[in-house]
């Protein structure tokens, strides 16, 4: 058996678009093989073909040299390939036990037996989750572990992990990697999809790059320079290492918080952001950094303490008051609070300034288009035009629309949460550049991110640990330094 | 150094301990309401708690409860059916017209009278199958499809009968709705047995659990190998048949098929299902919960009638009761409703 999994000359079209164009992948037994590419490169389509959810128009899939089972034979597929999808396939209203044995309960469900089988399964894979808990009550990490355990319980020795780290924080990612290494030692073959190239170098042995629905290259990771991988993905020979810009923060304080506390989130937090300054907020998922940022943006109300924006004191938890005071923000989850998918790019990006696009409650479509076109140009949003619904844009471009909404009113204070989650390398750069541009125009920004690379643009990084700011780290830190503080290993 | 074992997730879900057992009682959040209504009823009128009155309430609710059973299954599977109430009148009416002579208002086909119940069920199944075809195969919105079908199916009752009430019915269709078994009307037994079957199927069979999976996350259900389309189609067909059976019971109880039979029921059906804890978004709720919803509505109707509340004012009270029951189950259930 040369390859555990092979996909040969796959072509898949959806109407006029070609999602995969004569592309393929070959994965050797026992390897952890990365599949990378920018949004729209065809990675998700390959996943659904390798898991048998879709049939290729042309080409074939082989498992251990044998042809893949027919499309209706789900059980045969599941014995060959397991997948932890990007979109959770857990059913929140059912218990963990039932999720684990979905459609395998037997004709009549014996609940007691089902629960004990579930407990055994969770114990086998060392997943510390209560089998009787409702799946909807689990955190992201636990949900993922349940999905991995379920995937493996079919006896598959090939597992696909589709962006498993997108919604995990640093320590959880480390725990996932430890688990993946253990699985590899047991001989499990894995295909790993991620936007984070450092993860590819950390956990994978070989990598395949897709670009524009085509296979670009497959190489062992060890002998592949970082630059070459990035240029294979983007199709450009330019290095994308972010050029950090130097700037001198002014004296004017644009955003200030004193004595902020919110039960269960953070306690006694104070910070001040000056014009022309980017302040980073780092910490693990339970550090309270998102809760703090949401309070600073007016999305949440603190129990005590006060927030000053531009010398004004907006009513806590009142978003319109914060916006009126000159604050703009990018929410943590763009799908949730970032945009209205069915509305156009123009409507989404000008939403906060509608009042000024016309009088007597009317909105002038002409002025809206003009303003939107300006934002599209400034942020380099790849769209068919201001009238295109945001739902049709790729992740990176949708996030740019969220940025447009935050920046449309030229805010003097900016709160940006996880700006680069689930976007490709090039968009990442553009988004961080947009933050820096705004700051150079005189704004002050707070940047919260789980990605250390994002935080490199910050003039200083405040590290949170268990709801408190434990350290103010100036520019020039190393990953190791920052992580050590975030993990509470050193102060 | 951090000494946490690597495999321990950081956050524990906070649902260890006895909560899963409590979850079973979520079905029963309306029980206090039912008890309250029984107490109120007992103080209102001495007749209320007599066996005769209780059996009367149950018989009146038997046919509507079958619609609630059907709607609860469809809602749990994440779909919607408004047309059930029209099937209640149309299915038995068409079956009867196929059997009775032209002089009595039928089609004059002269089919044997014993066939009337199977024919009615067949008409119900056909309506459900047509709904299922449009919604699942044709991928139309369940709300709009069944809204149109609500109008069409009722029209199929009005058209052939020209709005006249059918009085001359074969004995076979009157039997189930009027006979008494072991001291209770047969309709109560039938509804009781079907609810028991419903509770068992949705709680303890793979087919029943797949409804929850489909309503909770249809993509995940498909990925788990559940034949989503086939199951949904089956649910619509069963729903239509239950509606037809409800019509048969109602026909027997009233002894005639009026052109308005079933009209307006669907609001009560939704109210009963939703206050009984069935989510309009799919994936949540139980048949037992839906049953408690039916009982609440039946008790309220009975108390209002005993109190002599004018029929013109009763809708106001029903509406208010539904809202109050929702608030109580919201407080007892703890979670925000969707």
TrEMBL record, chain A:
InterPro entries: AAA+_ATPase, ABC_carbohydrate_import_ATPase, ABC_transporter-like_ATP-bd, ABC_transporter-like_CS, P-loop_NTPase. GO terms for molecular function: ATP binding; ATP hydrolysis activity. Coiled coil: none annotated. It comes from the Bacteria. Residues 5-237, 247-491 form the ABC transporter domain. Keywords: ATP-binding, Nucleotide-binding, Repeat, Sugar transport, Transport. This is Simple sugar transport system ATP-binding protein. It comes from Nonomuraea endophytica.
UniProtKB/TrEMBL annotation, chain B:
The chain crosses the membrane at residues 28-49, 90-109, 115-133, 140-159, 179-202, 231-249, 261-280, 287-306, 312-332. The keyword Cytoplasm does not apply. It is found in: Cell membrane. The keyword Mitochondrion does not apply. Keywords: Cell membrane, Membrane, Sugar transport, Transmembrane, Transmembrane helix, Transport. One of its GO terms (cellular component) is plasma membrane. Pfam families: BPD_transp_2. It is a multi-pass membrane protein. GO terms for molecular function: transmembrane transporter activity. This is Simple sugar transport system permease protein/ribose transport system permease protein.
């Amino acid at each position: 058996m040369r390859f555990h999994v092979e996909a040969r000359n796959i072509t898949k079209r959806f109407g006029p678009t070609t999602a995969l164009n004569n592309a393929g992948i070959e994965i050797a037994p026992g390897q952890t093989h990365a599949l990378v590419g920018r949004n729209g490169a065809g990675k998700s389509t390959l996943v659904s073909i390798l898991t048998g959810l879709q049939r290729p128009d042309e080409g074939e899939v082989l498992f251990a040299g044998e042809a893949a089972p027919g499309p209706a034979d789900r059980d045969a597929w599941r014995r060959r390939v397991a997948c932890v999808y990007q979109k959770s396939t857990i059913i929140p209203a059912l218990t963990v036990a039932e999720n684990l044995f979905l459609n395998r309960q037997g004709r009549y469900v014996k609940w007691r037996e089902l629960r004990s089988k579930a407990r055994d399964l969770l114990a086998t894979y060392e997943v510390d989750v209560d089998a009787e808990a409702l799946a909807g009550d689990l955190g992201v990490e636990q949900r993922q572990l349940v999905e991995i355990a379920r995937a493996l319980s079919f006896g598959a020795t090939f597992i696909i992990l589709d962006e498993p780290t997108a919604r995990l924080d640093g320590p959880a990612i480390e725990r996932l990697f430890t688990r993946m290494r253990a699985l590899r030692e047991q001989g499990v073959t894995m295909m790993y999809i991620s936007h984070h190239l450092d993860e590819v170098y950390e956990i994978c042995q070989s990598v395949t790059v897709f670009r524009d629905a085509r296979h670009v290259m497959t190489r062992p990771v060890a002998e592949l320079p970082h630059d070459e991988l990035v240029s294979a993905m983007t199709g450009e020979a330019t290095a994308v290492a972010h050029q950090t810009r130097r700037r001198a923060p002014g004296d004017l304080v644009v955003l200030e918080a004193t004595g902020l506390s919110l039960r269960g989130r953070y306690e006694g937090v104070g910070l001040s952001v000056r014009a022309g300054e980017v302040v980073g907020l780092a910490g693990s998922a339970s550090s309270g950094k998102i809760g703090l940022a949401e309070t600073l943006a007016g999305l949440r109300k603190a129990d005590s303490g006060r927030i000053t924006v531009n010398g004004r004191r907006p009513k806590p938890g009142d978003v319109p008051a914060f916006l009126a005071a000159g604050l703009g923000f990018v929410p943590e989850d763009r799908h949730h609070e970032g945009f209205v998918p069915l509305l156009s790019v123009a409507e989404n990006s000008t939403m906060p300034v509608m009042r000024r696009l016309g009088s007597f409650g009317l909105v002038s479509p002409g002025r809206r288009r003009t303003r939107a076109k300006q934002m599209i140009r400034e942020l380099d949003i790849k769209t068919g035009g201001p009238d295109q619904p945001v739902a049709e844009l790729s992740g990176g471009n949708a996030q740019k629309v969220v940025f447009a909404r935050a920046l449309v009113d030229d805010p003097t204070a900016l709160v940006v949460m996880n700006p680069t989650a689930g976007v490709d390398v090039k968009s990442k750069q553009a988004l961080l550049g947009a933050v820096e541009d705004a700051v150079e125009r005189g704004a002050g920004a707070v940047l919260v991110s789980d990605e250390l690379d994002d935080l490199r643009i910050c003039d200083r990084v405040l590290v949170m640990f268990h709801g408190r700011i434990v350290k103010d780290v100036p520019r020039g830190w190393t990953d190791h330094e920052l992580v050590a503080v975030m993990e509470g290993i050193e102060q | 150094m951090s000494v946490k074992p690597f495999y321990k997730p950081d956050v524990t879900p906070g649902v260890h301990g006895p909560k899963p057992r409590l979850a079973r009682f979520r079905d029963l959040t309306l029980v206090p309401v039912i008890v309250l209504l029984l107490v109120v009823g007992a103080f209102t009128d001495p007749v209320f708690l007599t066996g005769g009155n209780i059996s009367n309430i149950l018989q009146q609710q038997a046919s509507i409860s079958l619609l609630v059973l059907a709607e609860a299954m469809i809602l749990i599977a994440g779909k919607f059916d408004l047309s059930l109430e029209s099937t209640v009148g149309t299915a038995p009416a068409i079956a009867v017209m196929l059997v009775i002579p032209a002089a009595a208002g039928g089609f004059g086909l002269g089919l044997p009278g014993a066939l009337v119940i199977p024919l009615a069920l067949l008409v119900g199944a056909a309506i459900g199958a047509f709904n299922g075809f449009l919604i699942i195969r044709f991928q139309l919105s369940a709300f709009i499809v069944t809204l149109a079908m609500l109008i069409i199916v009722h029209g199929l009752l009005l058209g052939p009968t020209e709005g006249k009430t059918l009085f001359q019915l074969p004995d076979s269709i009157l039997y189930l709705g009027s006979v008494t078994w072991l001291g209770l009307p047969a309709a109560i037994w039938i509804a009781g047995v079907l609810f028991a079957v419903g509770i068992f199927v949705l709680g303890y069979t793979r087919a029943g659990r797949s409804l929850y999976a489909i309503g909770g996350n249809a993509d995940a259900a498909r990925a788990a190998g559940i034949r989503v389309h086939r199951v949904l189609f089956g649910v619509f067909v069963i729903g239509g048949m239950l509606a037809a059976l409800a019509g048969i019971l109602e026909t027997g109880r009233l002894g005639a098929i009026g052109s308005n039979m079933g009209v307006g029921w669907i609001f009560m059906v939704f109210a009963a299902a939703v206050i009984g804890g069935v989510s309009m978004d799919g994936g949540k709720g139980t048949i037992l919960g839906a049953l408690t919803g039916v009982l609440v509505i039946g008790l309220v109707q009975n108390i209002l009638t005993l109190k002599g509340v004018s029929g013109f004012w009763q809708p106001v009270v029903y509406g208010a009761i539904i809202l109050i029951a929702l608030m109580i189950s919201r407080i007892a259930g703890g979670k925000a409703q969707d």
